[in-house]
Amino acid sequence: MSTTDVELPVLTAKDFASDQEIRWCPRCGDYSILAQMKKVLPTLGIPKEEIVFVSGIGCSSRFPYYMDTYGFHSIHGRAPAIATGLKVARPELQVWVITGDGDGLSIGGNHLMHAIRRNVDLKIILFNNQIYGLTKGQYSPTSPLGKRTKSTPLGSVDHPLSPLSIAIGSEATFVARSVDVDIKHLTMVLERAAKHKGTAFVEVYQDCNVFNSGAFDFASKKDQKIENCIYLEDGKPLIYGPNRDKGIRLNGKGEPEVVSLDEVKEDDLLFHDESANEPAHAFQLGRMRWPDMPEPMGIFRDISRPTYDGEVARQLEDATAKNGTGDLEALFNSGDTWEVK
Amino acid sequence: MRCSASVERREPEATRFNEPTAFDSRTDFPPIHSEITLWFRVTDVRITSERSHGPLTSITERATAERTKHDMSTAATAEVNGKESQELDSVVIRFCGDSGDGMQLAGTQFTNVSAVFGNDVSTLPDFPAEIRAPAGSLAGVSGFQLCFSSNEIFTPGDEVDTLVAMNPAALKTNLQDLKRGGTLIVNEDAFDKGNLQKAHYESNPLEDNEALAGYRVHKVPMTRLTRDAVEGLGLTQREADRCKNIFALGLVYWLYDRDAKPTEEWLSTKFAKHPSIAESNLRALKAGQNYGFSTETFTVHYEVAPAELPPGKYRKITGNEAVAFGLATAAKLAGKELFYGGYPITPASDILHELAKLKHFGVKTFQAEDEIAAITSIIGASFGGALAVTASSGPGIALKGEGIGLAVMTELPMVIVNVQRGGPSTGLPTKTEQSDLFLSYFGRNGDCPMVLVAAQSPADCFDMAQEAMRLAVEHMTPVFLLTDGYIANGAEPWPVPNIADLKPITVKHPTEPNANGDGYLPYLRDDNLVRPWAIPGTPGLEHRLGGIEKSDGSGNVDYDPQNHQHMVETRQRKIDLIANDIPEQEVFGPDSGDLLLVSWGGPFGAVRTAVDRSIKAGKSVAHCHLRYISPFPRNLGDILGNYKQVLIPELNMGQLRHIIRGKYLVDAQGYNKIQGKPFLVSELTRKIDEMLK
């Protein structure tokens, strides 16, 4: 077991490292995500005993073992449901869910959707590597059409789904995307997720360098990402490119199109609005996929709505205020009773 | 009940009766109207229209002969003002009709007034799985049987003394259970061509003296009389017709000398916001009663004196209600919040409904997206330190299997209530069965032992729910609480418990490191092999749990072969050791002899009654009823060896028998009924006689 110091006034990344040897493949993208998480947590001002990581099954789901917080490495796909039970039982805890594209979108798709629509105050980080790594290389629900894997030797004919579309379709109150090795950006996104009240859904593009190497080079390589990605800024127009001379505008059909800033004024571009109540804007951004379009990165949506765990707790308080604290004597004597003499 | 041999901590005081269900709400009515010749067998002496509580003056031998079979015997027949009143020990009534006819409601009301009157009561509801099967069809028949008695009773009775049939389909599907000489009351208005066709009657049985020969038949134009009674209240015909179950109820109240006041009060409260509906039902009730004593068709009515229950305050409680009460009580006794995660399923949903009312007890209910989320949410809640519980039935329990395995692996406390129904697959959702014992005992991957306890009656659910939770938190293990549809929908007079008498439940959450130095070892076990339950929020005890095999002590992932063998054996030994924390098995009847009946769950009442009768008939028979199935009581093996033969009656193909034969190498015989119905006492008595030949 790890050695911990409960009196530490200021925690550091080291304090969140467990004593367990990390067993991801060398150069796996998971290392970077773990490192950024350890950096972010000490900045939140939350005692580490009040932080819990819950995961399912898959490479990413080993994550809790490497954090010296409370943790639960559960069963395939069920982390959002376990986390929901935990959070509803203990609303004061900060609960993170670590999942992957197979765990969260295939076997556990139902739980993910329902956790999000309930707006349970969970931070859900979905590591998307577009492959089943732990079972050694089958295609996943996010693998692109035509993907050749062990289980699809002639190429996949499954139309992939977009994690962001699922999240936004389930009316998530916080939706973001980042990339494993984009350290600054990922840190910013994790911080924002941590501070959001309600379900925060974050997709992280994560390189599986063994079974799907380079799948996200377009968004992670320094020379490519600047060409291919739009870094979202709230209230600002969508501008990108090495020279920041390209932008996104809605055409006559309301569809996004790439325009040159030489020809179009900034004011005519699409402006990002994180807090738009209607999810259509965020959904539209989520549908912009490389290589057809530049891909947005960052915070797609951040709105406020009562949390499920908060509402459950409120109902208990209301019921107690109305009826008084439950009294067994009164309960047993409720309904028809009669006396035998 | 109240049998000296039961192993319970606090014995329930009376027997079961059953409650209405969600299937009670149909309002479709068949078209009615037919004039049918009145025909009935004249039986008894003739009389006045007054109810009699007067002195008993004469005995009608014939009535006595007809009523001595089984639970029912005529004590006396009184003749007051020329109108006859018979006193009976016990009576079995069945209301049956279309599932929109309100039969569950009528049965429940009769049960309530009988319980309040002081009879011991036991009931059996029987309703179709379809919420809206076609009106008038055989598939849509809903029934409610109850036995009420001046003596202690254990079952709702084998044969029916009085059958109320609201339509031809109900008559067709229920007549075979009416004893010869029994009373048949039919709504003759419902015997029209259409309904007769739907019931596959080629001719009207009410016009066929042969078909109903041997019964006392009362053909009552209930629909017409009900409409007449509510005339002038501005009701639609459909609304008026919905009162005819209450008319029938009123008639039977008269017949059995019931005080209708509790029903009148119930109707007034229930329809407080709809005065005309309340009034119409009250009028229908009165009209039914008046019909009884003002017409000449009913020449006799009956009295059943109160039973001699131990003094005290009673409340009726259903099995599902008792589970909810027991769980809330357990949480209160432990000083903890209760977290319930569940997915709606027949017949377990009422547990969710009941608990959802108890928010002020600190009860959190979570209606999950599916059965898997239900079980895993409670795993999360248990990890967080809540008293965690889920309930389901067959198909739902199957879905929970993987999650329960995780609970066994992580050694977290929780209760899984399995309200068994007919299987396999969707099976018979509204019918009772005991066929999930294997599923509960074995239904997980790996060697995956856990605790199984089984309630024997509705009120026993209160005790066993607490016991299940106590074993879970004190031994850090998931616990199955097995009930079944028969117990769950059943209810019984339940002596309101004294809170000081309830067994305490101790929950310990460590706050200090338990290892040398300042570490925390989540799998460091005590003498009972129980690991500590440290919960998030406790500084310094941060740890990780998971489904991968772990190193004993540290709980770290461990694939070592010797460690795995050690851990699998340890998990089993931990459950085995719980035998020291449960009562020894007791036996009803002689300590040794020719035949031992071993039962578990819902058949308790029928088996106990059959054994009791056999003992009274001089046979060497005993009854061992198990409430603890995993682990078994430590003395069970010895008990099994004390009898020449062992019989295990079960509502399945012999699942307990299989386990007992495997564990104790005893040549136990089975008696297996798989019809979605509970055992009849007579079936068991026959089997006992056969084995003792």
Give the helix/strand layout.
The complex is a heterodimer of chains A (341) and B (693).
Chain A: H1 29-40, E1 51-55, E2 70-73, H2 79-89, E3 94-100, H3 101-107, H4 109-118, E4 122-128, H5 163-169, E5 174-179, H6 183-195, E6 200-205, H7 217-220, H8 222-228, E7 229-231, E8 239-240, E9 246-250, E10 256-260, H9 280-287, E11 295-302, H10 308-323, H11 328-332, E12 337-340
Parallel strand pairs in A: 1-2, 1-3, 3-4, 4-6, 5-6, 7-11
Antiparallel strand pairs in A: 5-11, 8-9, 9-10
Chain B: E1 17-18, H1 61-67, E2 74-80, E3 83-88, E4 90-98, H2 103-117, E5 120-126, E6 141-149, E7 160-165, H3 168-174, E8 178-187, H4 193-198, E9 216-220, H5 222-229, H6 237-241, H7 244-255, H8 261-270, H9 275-294, E10 300-304, E11 312-318, H10 319-334, E12 338-342, H11 349-356, E13 363-367, H12 371-383, E14 387-392, H13 394-410, E15 414-420, H14 437-442, E16 451-454, H15 460-475, E17 478-484, H16 485-489, E18 490-495, E19 544-546, H17 561-577, E20 593-600, H18 604-616, E21 621-626, E22 628-630, H19 636-640, E23 643-650, H20 655-664, E24 669-672, H21 681-691
Parallel strand pairs in B: 3-10, 4-7, 7-8, 8-9, 12-13, 12-14, 14-15, 15-17, 16-17, 20-21, 20-23, 23-24
Antiparallel strand pairs in B: 1-18, 2-3, 4-6, 5-6, 11-18, 16-22
